[in-house]
Amino acid sequence: MSEPVLEAKSLTKSYVMGGRALDVLRGVDLTIHAGESLAIVGSSGAGKSTLLHLLGLLDRPTTGQVLFRGSDVGSLSRTARSRLRQRHIGFVFQFYHLIPELNALENVLLPLMMKHSIASWFGAKSAERERGRALLARLGLSERAGHRPSQLSGGERQRVAIGRALIGDPDVVLCDEPTGNLDEATSREISDLLFELKQDSGKTFVFVTHDLELAQRADRVVRLVHGRVEPFVAAS
Ligand SMILES: Nc1ncnc2c1ncn2[C@@H]1O[C@H](COP(=O)(O)OP(=O)(O)OP(=O)(O)O)[C@@H](O)[C@H]1O
Ligand SMILES: [Mg+2]
Description:
Elements: E1 4-17, E2 20-33, E3 37-41, H1 48-55, E4 63-68, E5 71-72, H2 78-88, E6 89-93, H3 104-115, H4 118-138, H5 154-166, E7 172-176, H6 184-201, E8 204-208, H7 212-215, E9 220-225, E10 228-231
Parallel strand pairs: 3-8, 3-9, 6-7, 7-8
Antiparallel strand pairs: 1-2, 1-4, 4-5, 9-10
Helix pairs in contact: 3-4, 3-5, 5-6
């Protein structure tokens, strides 16, 4: 098997609300290998998004470790963690999280703009716009580059969000309910697209999902239950 890209070791996460601790993750051990697709299922409130945020270095565990390519990211400064995230991790969310004032192309290019200083962005702009346009074409959105999110369908918005996740050429793409806001036919289209992109790129994909059809297309499915991860076996 290929080498681990992300590992969770004895991860716990507790939230303190109104003086009471809510223990959401109670010791998660999980190894995600380079190039695999992994689906994480579990009931609502099980802590799937919490786990994905920890794996994506958006949040820090209460105890335990997250390793990126074997290195403990917990010892890194906030800035070093953000840099690692920007370079290596792409996110796709259920509600797209696009910037309403920007058009599709600008939304896709946003992570690149954030990597640059203003001066270097203006220098790099035309090559990167070309990359953005090529990616939009790959996502079937050539005709939509100038549209704002409000002028796009849900499926198109999610395609833009997938473009934004991929533009920086990350190693790992973390998707939180990528089809959760879409009808059945559009969910199928988006899930086909994600698996095609995975196939073409060889990147690692992690899907948190309630969509069992999507989950079962992944190489491996785990379930989050009582704050721990266990292999998922579908009822036949
Ligand atoms: N920032 C927070 N502060 C306090 N509690 C939180 C916070 N984020 C999540 N929680 C709580 O942690 C639990 C797990 O939340 P999480 O969003 O990870 O679940 P989930 O499995 O993604 O659920 P869903 O399938 O509904 O998206 C929930 O009970 C939630 O209310
Ligand atoms: Mg969630």
